């Protein structure tokens, strides 16, 4: 599958964006000191409902209190940053995740001597508000840059907004079972929900998906299907082969796969190690009929 230029991608096609091609630079979406952003996906790539970027906090970096007219979520990849969300302060570590609700004030700090990096999601997509700005950033002076924080404990009901992923959280591999679909078209899969409506999200989901390689598995572990929402996959480990209307590609750890609304897509692992990715869906999937699998309709006569 020929990789589509990032600003000329065809509609209703899946695209792969290489992590090695990301370039970090100062960006208005994170108005701080020592912070850089590497955009992965926004409206220029055909995303209707979300934007995705990597954010890097250098040692001593700070982002002052601010808020957005949209939701933000994050997944920590490296380092130990501090984040303040409303009246809560968290000391984060790799594989912590969190939700910044609509209009909630938040601020960042990296007091450690090593850089911190996290995957960041904005949804709906930022746009000028009242003809002002491009990144949807508004001052929240009541939120101080955090100088300390508590470890994430998602079992504590008085510490909302954040959680932590561990491999031990995963149920044994099986068929997919999640909001919007239950069936056998996606097999040998493990899913761990993170950001969803239970955490307070109203516009998107973030979760971990893992496929364990199986030489005897079906050719497409996840059969080709279509969604009425944008879907993104950021690979944490392993390699996968992708399928899209007869065309194929591949993606590896650090790459991002984007399947916009209406794009056909399917996967199978091609590495010895498990394929593990952070998956994003925006807007929230409907309670049913969120997956349209080609093979489900193969036995029906198409007359138009």
TrEMBL record:
One of its GO terms (molecular function) is metal ion binding. Keywords: Metal-binding. Coiled coil: none annotated. Residues 54-121, 221-278 form the Cupin type-2 domain. It comes from the Bacteria. It holds the Pfam family Cupin_2. This is Cupin type-2 domain-containing protein. It comes from Mycolicibacterium chlorophenolicum. The lineage of its organism: Bacteria, Bacillati, Actinomycetota, Actinomycetes, Mycobacteriales.
